[in-house]
């Protein structure tokens, strides 16, 4: 009686080992017991053949599942294990349970008949103002649509498709290879389960024809770059009456000359005169809604200060309220002065004590201390 060593023990791995672990362990052991490194050693040669056999089994997901279920009996081709025919049938059932999901599995999730049509993509550019307000617009696309002549069936009017005689309408055929049950698409109907003996002249049996369609797209207020609008059932028509795919409209917001956007917040740069920055005042920013937003400038405002106007930004997509408008202030130094303006500024400079510019005074005081130190 021959002693059969467990394949996992031969490869020195756990039963739940992943593929990378199996491969790594096999390589290490194969190098150790390879006949070229153990010349004349019968034990090493036998061990090398055994680990090779174990690796050939466990590296294959189907064979490994069979081994985990039935052990060495799964590979005896009917010898031992309580009767070859019963073992084969039992393994066929468990193989179908395990792999039926991936191979069609008959009625357990197998897909037969015409497939759903493909989804389509359409890229559309809109302005920031359109993203703010929302809009309704038409797009023209070339798609495969259901054939009007045969109503998408693919069969000549007055006729209909019939169940495939090869697969009996299942769309799949089975064949036994060793202890495996292999299931594949029916070669006669190509997996559709039905055949058309008298195809439609307009679509040649496809059930769909090329058409140009004009569709209305409703863009809601508050959309952003990359927002998708889905038009259900407006993609490619499925073959022979199968459901159509969807059309996805990808939105791209054109760069604005004034505003930058982060979510629902709008940012704008606003240059102001140094007198307005010094004395305070008010500026007006036109928003994407068409309104003028008044921004109050506090006296003593410095460059880089951000002033926030609540509720003056972009609308919340499919929600309530709006984001904010943030204005970044840039104080502009005059570059051209009249003699009178220069005279007034000279008079102002003559009255300066340093308290008017605390940052400037503080900076140079630090510099003096650093040099003195």
Outline the structure in words:
With 373 residues, the protein is of the alpha+beta class. The chain folds into five domains: 7-103, Orthogonal Bundle (Helix Hairpins), CATH 1.10.287; 112-155 and 204-255, Sandwich (HSP40/DNAj peptide-binding domain); 162-195, no CATH class; 260-335, Urease metallochaperone UreE, N-terminal domain (HSP40/DNAj peptide-binding domain, Sandwich); 339-373, no CATH class. The chain has nine helices and 15 strands. α2 (19-33) runs antiparallel to α3 (42-58) and α4 crosses α5 (84-103). The longest helix is centred in the N-terminal third of the chain and has 20 residues, at 84-103. 22% of the residues are buried. This is Chaperone protein DnaJ. A zinc finger (CR-type) spans 134-212. Residues 6-71 form the J domain. One of its GO terms (cellular component) is cytoplasm.
């Amino acid at each position: 009686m021959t002693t059969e060593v467990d394949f996992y023990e031969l490869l020195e791995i756990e039963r739940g080992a992943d593929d990378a672990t199996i491969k790594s362990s096999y390589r290490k052991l194969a190098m150790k017991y390879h006949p070229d490194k153990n010349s004349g050693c019968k034990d090493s040669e036998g061990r090398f053949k055994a680990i090779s056999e174990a690796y050939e089994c466990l590296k294959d997901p189907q064979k490994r599942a069979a081994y985990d279920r039935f052990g060495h009996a799964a590979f005896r081709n009917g010898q031992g294990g309580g009767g070859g025919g019963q073992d084969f049938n039992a393994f066929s059932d468990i193989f179908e349970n395990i792999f039926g999901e991936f191979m069609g599995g008959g009625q357990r999730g197998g897909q037969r008949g015409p497939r759903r049509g493909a989804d389509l993509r359409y890229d559309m550019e809109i302005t920031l103002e359109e993203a703010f307000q929302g809009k309704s617009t038409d797009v023209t696309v070339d798609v495969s649509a259901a054939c009007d002549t045969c109503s998408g069936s693919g069969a000549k009017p007055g006729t209909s498709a019939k169940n495939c005689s090869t697969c009996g309408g299942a769309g799949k055929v089975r064949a036994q290879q060793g202890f495996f049950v292999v299931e594949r698409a029916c070669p006669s109907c190509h997996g559709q389960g039905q055949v058309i003996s008298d195809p439609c002249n307009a679509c040649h049996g496809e059930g769909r024809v090329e058409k140009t369609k004009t569709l209305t797209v409703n863009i809601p207020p508050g959309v952003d770059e990359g927002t998708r609008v889905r038009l259900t059932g407006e993609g490619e028509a499925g073959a022979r009456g199968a459901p159509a795919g969807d059309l996805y409209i990808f939105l791209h917001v054109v760069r604005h000359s004034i505003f930058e956007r982060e979510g629902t917040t709008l940012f704008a740069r606003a240059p102001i005169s140094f007198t307005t920055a010094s004395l305070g005042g008010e500026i007006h920013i036109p928003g994407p809604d068409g309104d003028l937003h008044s921004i109050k400038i506090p006296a003593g405002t410095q460059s880089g200060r951000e002033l926030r106007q609540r509720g003056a930004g972009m609308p919340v997509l499919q929600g309530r309220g709006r984001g904010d408008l943030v204005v970044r202030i840039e104080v502009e130094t005059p570059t051209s002065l009249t003699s009178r303006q220069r005279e007034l500024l000279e008079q102002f400079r003559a009255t300066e004590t340093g308290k008017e510019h605390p940052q400037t005074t503080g900076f140079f005081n630090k510099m003096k201390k650093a040099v003195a130190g």
